[in-house]
TrEMBL record, chains A, B:
It is an enzyme of class 2 (transferase). It comes from Ligilactobacillus apodemi DSM 16634 = JCM 16172. ATP binds at T219, D220, Y225, R230. Pathway: Amino-acid biosynthesis; L-methionine biosynthesis via de novo pathway; L-homoserine from L-aspartate: step 1/3; Amino-acid biosynthesis; L-lysine biosynthesis via DAP pathway; (S)-tetrahydrodipicolinate from L-aspartate: step 1/4; Amino-acid biosynthesis; L-threonine biosynthesis; L-threonine from L-aspartate: step 1/5. Gene3D superfamilies: Acetylglutamate kinase-like, Aspartokinase, catalytic domain, VC0802-like. NCBIfam families: asp_kinases, PRK09034.1. GO terms for molecular function: aspartate kinase activity; ATP binding. It catalyses: L-aspartate + ATP = 4-phospho-L-aspartate + ADP. The lineage of its organism: Bacteria, Bacillati, Bacillota, Bacilli, Lactobacillales. Its EC number is 2.7.2.4. InterPro entries: AceGlu_kinase-like_sf (IPR036393), ACT-like_dom_sf (IPR045865), ACT_Aspartokinase (IPR054352), ACT_dom (IPR002912), AKIII_YclM_N (IPR035804), Asp/Glu/Uridylate_kinase (IPR001048), Asp_kin_monofn (IPR005260), Asp_kinase (IPR001341). This is Aspartokinase.
């Protein structure tokens, strides 16, 4: 049995639904289908998830929501009409969409989560209706019914271990099972979503929980590429890679597959096949355990991510006091900020953050507290920090890889702030200003491919 | 006025004392002299500090101490005899040496500190007696008299800020002032020593506190070398370097000058001249503020230190929990262990420690606590870890420096565990197994000199 997940662009309109149905019905083992919400149909389009967020915000601001409801409904209606689904079969959708405003929620964050989750929910129920309409036995499965339990972080939940026990009790026949991605239910019975793009996570949880032989992840690219096609012309398509390669690459910008989705796949040893809904016959990229992997290239992928910021601290004898870093981390913890990396010199420390956590106020508060606690000689922020990851199971000789990386960028006036060839055996991390990151990826790519 | 400090080998016997007296009397501005305890006279000799430690241990073990007292006394007696000092002028020394056993101490750690400190104390008083005997006006200054106040860490004290206020009140004429290095007095009036080699620290504190124009540090090498002469043949002698270069180099193995002694020198902006007691006419190495420094070479020095160990941790989504590193640091804090560096990958973390803090029991306890708190997928220790530092104010183009480093070692099968080109602008740090460190230093040296 395979679990098959379709991304938002694969389910954006009726024409895309046709491709999805063709893919699903062409292979009886493709039994469990995870839906995203309808994505963009063209570059300027708005994803249904964003429409639902706007709907929630209008409602919370006591603004009229009839126009936005109509736009959302029309997205599903257009799909239904492609398959000549009778109009009365969508009455429930219009009603449930409106009734989102009438329910009670613990707070605005849970309200937002519930609104957002309905993009996937409606799409899964609609796909079930269409399959049944076409004579394909199919059954909608609600995450609340199957027991997909998550933590009480309304918009950034994680799966709870009990989920897998619940899945063991789930009974089904040979019909297609259609599950909405992106959300689960908390211990209190509320809807909570994973982080954005979280349908990948649902797919991985379901694939693990139902012991799938394969998790097919259908999206809109033929394969995962060794570098971003916007930076490098015709990049090398990766045919096979390991879980941990995928994880390291998605951490720093490979957006094809959600990095948190790797973990359930690893835990269940479910292989992942990233494929293209528009070219389903192409092999795509297989993500497999490293025990089954023979690297063909020294480097598998190169990526950069610009969503970082860094705090630089200098103080004489900084590393002498055993408790100094502890003080810094307690300050970060107090302000609810987590850090990504913390390279240290003799008397200095750089703390690298995911920028999305930092507001001007938080930065000021952190600076003030650190100044008071540590009295540093220097404290400064680098606002546009990028991390570049060079990843490969084939990098047995890391010093040789490093040589080629350095040779590739040393003549191009690229300022490297940090080189972190730390603990990981399969990656090298560089820190640079955002402005230099794209060029660095290009030169490094050219050195290895 | 210059503060002049002499190391243990410079004061090891009567012949060395002659050189010291020649140096001190040849320049009237050499007014303040800091003494070490008598060091080794030949390779197999025992330093007086180690004899005093043995004396303390014998005493604590209720063993007979008369033999060790006699050996210690003979070291000073030999020096006195070289200058034909009348025998009755050393009666006090024999008496004070014995009376160390009769005093009361808050605990064994303070007892050890007081015993140790007498190596410098006796040498300073002896040098004063000899100078007076030779007709040179000289005055012994006790750290307790001048108010050299330190923290209540009996064997690893730090200077307290009040020291500098006390120094401002200190009155003196044109006579030579002889101060013992290595120790100060706590708020409770007890003797506490700096860490081993701490006479350098006393010299820097005194130079700052008495506003010396220069701090001359006399030892047994002609200069500070760009690499360890035991690893590299005829290494380049550094004529000038900056405070922070010296600090980074001494951190990782440059043992010529105590790294904690840099800080008072910087605070007081006192230049340091490292010179050779055996060749006092040679220029030695000047350590100066970087504002006054023009680098002549890209790299100033290369050093390695093998006294490290590393703990490797791997856990999926390790860096997701904001409080995970905090938990680790709290565990280290609880066990009284400080860490040096903590390079992190996506799902892994390496923690590098000064090995001297780690016993087998502490490692077990830390492993157990971290396992319980984090449940890592992997936890392993690297017991023989070395850090290599490449330091230079001249490394404006760090990526170019890195290129040459990598090219130098890449063909020699040296396994680099970590490259930390972190926050510091004037250094690059490599982590490697101890077995590879010496070879790496050699190849890197050859690339730059």
């Amino acid at each position: 049995m395979k679990v098959v997940k379709f991304g938002g662009s694969s389910l954006a309109n009726g024409e895309q639904f046709k491709k999805v149905i063709q893919i699903v019905t062409s292979d009886p083992s493709r039994q469990v289908i995870i839906t995203s919400a309808p994505g963009k149909r063209f570059a300027e389009d708005t994803k249904v998830t964003d429409l639902l967020i706007a709907y929630a915000e209008h409602f919370l601001d006591y603004e009229d929501t009839s126009a936005i409801q109509a736009v959302i409904f029309s997205r599903y209606q257009e799909i239904a009409q492609t398959f000549e689904l009778p109009a009365d079969q969508l009455v429930w959708l219009k009603k449930e969409l409106r009734k989102l405003q009438e329910k009670t929620y613990p707070n605005a964050a849970y309200l937002l989560a519930a609104f957002k989750a309905h993009g996937e929910y409606f799409n899964a129920r609609l796909l079930t209706l269409i399959l049944n309409h076409l004579g394909v036995p199919a059954r909608f499965v609600d995450p609340r019914e199957i027991g997909l339990l998550v933590t009480s972080d309304p918009n950034n939940a994680s799966v709870l271990p009990d989920t897998y026990e619940n899945f063991e009790k789930f009974k089904y026949g040979s019909e297609k099972l259609i599950l909405p991605g992106f959300f689960g239910v908390t211990a209190e019975g509320e809807i909570a979503t994973f982080s954005r793009g979280g349908s990948d996570i649902t797919g991985a949880i379901v694939a693990r929980g139902l012991h799938a032989e394969l998790y097919e992840n259908f999206t809109d690219v033929d394969a995962i590429y060794a570098a971003n096609p916007r930076l490098v012309k015709n990049p090398y398509a990766i045919t096979k890679m390991t879980y941990r390669e995928m994880r390291e690459l998605s951490y720093a910008g490979f957006s094809v597959f959600h990095d948190e989705a790797i973990v359930p796949a690893i835990e269940g040893r479910v292989k992942i096949n990233v494929k293209n809904t528009n070219h389903p016959d192409r092999p795509g990229t297989m993500i497999i355990p490293y025990q089954e992997f023979t690297p063909l290239t020294r480097v598998t992928g190169i990526t950069s991510s610009k969503h970082f910021a860094a705090l630089y601290l200098h103080k004489f004898l900084l590393n002498k006091g055993a408790g100094l870093t502890l003080k810094i981390l307690n300050i970060l913890y107090k302000h609810g900020i987590s850090y990504e990396h913390m390279p240290s010199g003799i008397d200095d420390l750089t703390i690298i953050f995911d920028k999305s956590q930092l507001t001007a106020e938080k930065k000021q508060a952190v600076s003030r507290d650190i100044r008071a606690a540590l009295r540093p000689d220097e404290l400064s922020w680098i606002d546009d920090y990028a991390l570049i990851m060079i990843v490969g199971e084939g990098m047995h000789n890391r010093i040789g890889i490093m040589k080629d990386i350095i040779l590739a960028i040393s003549d191009h006036n690229i300022n490297i702030h940090m080189i972190n060839q730390g603990a990981s055996e399969i990656s090298i991390m560089l820190g640079t200003k955002s402005a230099d990151a794209d060029r660095a990826v290009k030169y490094i790519y050219e050195a290895f491919f």
